[in-house]
Amino acid sequence: MEADAQRKKLIRDIEDMAARMRKSALDMAFSARGSASHIGAGMSIIDVLAVLYGGVMKLDKGDPIWAGRDRFILSKGHGVLGYYAALAEIGYLSKDDLDTFERSGTFLAGHPVMNRERGIEFTNGSLGMGLSLGVGVALALKKRGGANKVYVLVGDGECNEGAVWEAAMSAAQFKLDNLVAIADCNAFQLGGRNEDIMSVGDMAEKARSFGWNAVTVDGHDAERLYESLTASYENGKPLMIAAKTIKGKGFSMFESDNRWHHAMLSKSQYDSLAEELRSRQP
Amino acid sequence: MIINEALSKSWSRVGTRATFGLVMLDLAEKVDRLMVVSADVSTSAGLDRFKNAYPEKYLDVGIAEQNMMGIAAGLASEGYSVFTTSFAPFQTMRCCEQIRVNLGYMGSKVCMVGLASGLVSGILGNTHCCFEDIGVLRSIPGITIITPADCAEVAKAVCAAQRHPGPLYVRLTGSTRTPIVYADDYGFEIGKAISLREGADVAIIASGMMVHESIVASDLLDKSGISAAVVDMHTVKPLDIETLRGLLSKKLIVTVEEHSVMGGLGSAVAEFLSRLADRPPLKIIGVPDEFVEVAEYRELLERYGLTGEAIADAVSDAMRGLY
User: Exposure of B198 by Cβ count < 10 A (0-12 exposed, 13-18 middle, 19+ buried)?
Assistant: First the structure.
């Protein structure tokens, strides 16, 4: 019973963290006024990131390079609004750091640039490369014999890239059960809907056919995400979580409207979005 | 690794690729956190003994060079000293953007080894020839490029690469029974060219198998009264500017490479010389801007003027103002 109550509290904390992250992401998008940012993809991954950073991953808040940490790779590098917001929640980035987002001279570029001291594990931005990095890291961690996991967040549009499937094949071949890929299946890519451009179909089914364990979950349901990320699976296989998400999730103006794939916010838009966020707080 | 005549001779017999495999065997014994990642080329890279002797240090990713580079960078990020290998066009161009981002941008400690670069695979067609690799990689910031002159220099370069903190490309050229440039031990330093022949009139700057051909050319030129220095510019990037400055008093500078005349050693030297107001003329000898005809290695070298005799003729012509 006590465990149940603890679990409920954890999920509530994760949901609160996700709400704060959406506000941080919105603030960053607005503070980058002079330049556009990837709003849709940044918002769709926030709940996944809140579950990972707020409940699942082994981290040391005081030491971003602690050897015993789990590793995270943002393969869909344009999801930085969510990523930087998560790193700020952990304390690796400050509010002042976030205010420099996409400004000249910043270390918080529109795509992550490796900066381990600040929790940014890898350089990403060119799509289709992160899962291979994850395979390399997972192999190294296995050689070391630790119990660390590697989490790679890929986009469904990103999975148009053939290199993703080279990596998927190898993760199964090398029996990397310490590797978890989470596919942010928001059903859109730069130019429109996946189904109109290049659909990857059923991500979990594809992953299974590549020799992975795979589940499909609601990518905005913290409890289901937490369950799927902490459940036991068949040994010796990597895990794919196909997270069904909504691009721009959390803001009615952004949701499933691909004009917000990469866009700028006006002051009045920002004000009304911030108000919408406030009104949703319990 | 200490070179001696016997080693140099035995390596020369098996060629640059098999030498690479033998040197890796030696390195694996000494270096704990070493990984060799191959794209299904264990036999071609002379790595069969390595993979049997050190299975924990060997990884085959299959025919998937893009994945190979990402995996290599992931391993390097956890403290491994990583070597990757495939045939030169696939090792460099198939996965060029992974090299740019995962190696160059991230500064990963990964050494790429390009097999059978240049014209040695001419009979297989242009898919397997490689005369663009230096040009392509040279424009990516932070990547060191080494083209060893012979098998002994392959050994020196691979050992130096293992100690180097950032990304490198080691370009292997030639077939089996490669000419010997270095029969005895010598000092090898990344970025430091080696002067092999002194000469007052001309400086021939060469890389890879063209170093030996340039020595042959220098000997021939000597007989016709032209004194030609020969420099082994094994590191094409970063270029040894100091050594180049010492050659500015010559009447002519010639570069010779088994690579396109665009983007390689000749281009790198031209970029340096272009900054100077007072400089000798430069003659760039290499593969012209075209896909080569299907032919045996030696025949292609002859066709493109990449033999000692042809280099000597080209230098003589250039000395008489004929380019």
Answer: exposed
